[in-house]
UniProtKB/TrEMBL annotation:
PANTHER family: POLY A POLYMERASE, POLYNUCLEOTIDE ADENYLYLTRANSFERASE. Residues 16-102 form the Poly(A) polymerase nucleotidyltransferase domain. This is Poly(A) polymerase nucleotidyltransferase domain-containing protein. It comes from Aquilegia coerulea. It comes from the Eukaryota. Residues 1-22 are annotated as: Disordered.
Amino acid sequence: MGNPGNGNGNVQRKLGVTDPISLGGPTDFDRIKTQELEKYLCDAGLYESQEEAVSREEVLGRLDQIVKNWVKTVSHKRGFNEQLVHEANAKIFTFGSYRLGV
């Protein structure tokens, strides 16, 4: 399945299942409203502090180690040889608001 072009020879990459509502960028009105929203969120204290961000990263790091150790423990209990246990690994993927940084 090919990507649709925009009529002038350039091929555009399609992301998602459906076509986008618009390919246009933000308007001046959009930029102003975005700034107003960001100011409101900041004034309301809804952005996390640097300390909270660091704490979240530390928790994710610890969780990553717990999951990796668990995978190795399960691999060992299931009778895999030492090389396979050593090579066993896991990866945590963030998503949603965390992944978007909001």
